[in-house]
Amino acid sequence: MFKKYKIFKWILISFASIIISLFVFGWWFMGLLPSSENRIDITSTKVSDLSYLSKNKIPKRGKILAIVTSTNVMGSTEKSTGYELTELSRAYYVFQANGFDVDIASPLGGEPPVVIDDEDMGEFDYAFLNDSIAQYKASHTISVNNINPELYDAVFFAGGKGAMFDFPDNKSIQSIVQNLYENDKVVGAVCHGPAALVNVTLNNGKHLLENKKVSGFTNEEELLLIADAEMIFPFLLQDKLEDSGGIFNEGTMYLENISQERNLVTGQNPWSTWLLAESMIAQLGYKPKFREITGEENAVNVLKIYHAEGSEKAKELINQIYNVDKQPLSRVLIAKHGIIAAMQGKIGRFFSLTGLTSYAKKKSEERF
């Protein structure tokens, strides 16, 4: 049969070769990531285990209000949503470590829906889940209707796609933002959290965002993962921030980026949370308490250097992190950005970032 139909023979051989090649590449690619056997179990982390929180405690300086969404479904779809745990937990502990008590509020009060992405969870996030006080506050949030803004030095809006639905038109949220901003207190928001700012008008009749640099989840970031986002959400956040008079500051996709206009601080995505929270502390007039940088943050810095200066400079930074600074590095995040590049059809960048992941693995193994 194959002698008669040689073309079918070569089609089958080619197809089989492609399948085998993909399997081998996939097996090799997965080998670049830390195996589950070698991972330290951090799920039981407690506040007392984190020196940033348990040592050299700073006396109480005031209170900060964190606001999260009450929305659990994206519009008319059946897609679940809520606030992003990592965006709340990391900011919560930065505020606490720097001497501020934190109250948690939501549009409806009570227990809000939460989104937990196991792949993004770190020590601080698990500590938050194991912190009885933090968990009580997170499951018994105060209704924004019952908030007295005068009690707080700052307000922080955590992200999560639910914020796109119940933050923008909430009059109590608008009043809280206006009150704190016009009294020279700090207003911060990260990822989808800036949705709280899009309809805020000041006493002078001007929009809060008018001619101010602002960051938030970008159109490119939104549409890559949710192609029909324009049909699901009431607006795309980047478009709405610009329509509200903001000067949108768009950083590299899925990497840390914040904008600050005096006492207004906004961040692009979840990876911006650490810097945003510490920038809020600085704006409040205090030097942020020293915190050991996380492996994820180091990976973000490697990726920023990669995009700005190329692979060789990124490799130099990897050497610096491992051999000089003796710090951790999340090569999983570098690998994820390679996958993102593949999703965008940027195959050259995919292989380049895969090579960078392989280099990070090699340097990690050389330490032992």
TrEMBL record:
Gene Ontology molecular-function annotations: glyoxalase III activity; peptidase activity
Key words, A-Z: Hydrolase, Lyase, Membrane, Protease, Stress response, Transmembrane, Transmembrane helix
Domain annotation DJ-1/PfpI: ranges: 82-208
Signal peptide residue numbers: none
CDD domains on file: GATase1_Hsp31_like
One GO term of the biological process aspect: proteolysis
TM ranges: 7-30
InterPro entries on file: Class_I_gatase-like, DJ-1/PfpI, Prot/Nucl_acid_deglycase
GO cellular component labels: cytoplasm
Gene3D superfamilies reported in the protein's UniProt record: 3.40.50.880
Coiled-coil portions: none
Family membership noted in the UniProt record: Belongs to the peptidase C56 family. HSP31-like subfamily.
The protein's name: Putative intracellular protease/amidase
Organism per entry: Aquimarina amphilecti
